[in-house]
Predict the 3D structure of the following.
Amino acid sequence: MTIHKEGRSLLFWMLVILTGVNFAMHQLLPGQDTVLNLILLASIIIYLLVLQFFRNPAIPLPDDESLVYAPADGKVVVIEEAQEDEVLKERRKQISIFMSPVNVHVNRSPISGIVDYFVYHPGKYMVAWHPKASYENERTTMVIKHAKSDVKLLVRQIAGAVARRIKYYVKEGDPLVQGGEFGFIKFGSRVDVFVPLDAEILVKIDDVTKGGITPLARLK
């Protein structure tokens, strides 16, 4: 388990600030041990909560070209047939994973392949489950061309009401390894995967997923 690079600066300055606050309280409230201990306890809890947002567990990279793996830790909240009009212009099966603040926030590639399309869209910050969030919230849209076939997969990072910072580390033409990191959404939100209609769905609503570990679908 390591700390993700997106959180290192924040965690450093939080440690400095909280240490300063506790030092100042000891100077202002000498002898008030109960109050000082409560402030210290609150500082530790706040720091640990933020720390867990940025944990980055090591995982064994999967290697199964027939499977589509979860791009994120979270819970499956949508499995439905949908029209994808931004890029693919066709009907697809959509699988959506909601990332809560307690989940690991690293986003991982569902398949190995080449980034065929990538666009970042600034936008609103509605709650992630709102129907309009998919096309009005801050988001990225990425299409991955399968390494061993002509299959294309669309993956969309979507910010929410709490998560207001999407990070991505890829551009068009970049190679991706199945299970490899391609982005990060600070404090959670949602990731959508659009698979072909003939793909076999391997999860159901409310299933808990692990990024790069849980298979979502099997490609034909």
User: Anything to note?
Assistant: The longest strand covers residues 74-84. The chain has a mean pLDDT of 90. The first helix runs from residue 5 to 28. The helical segments are 5-28, 33-53, 133-136.
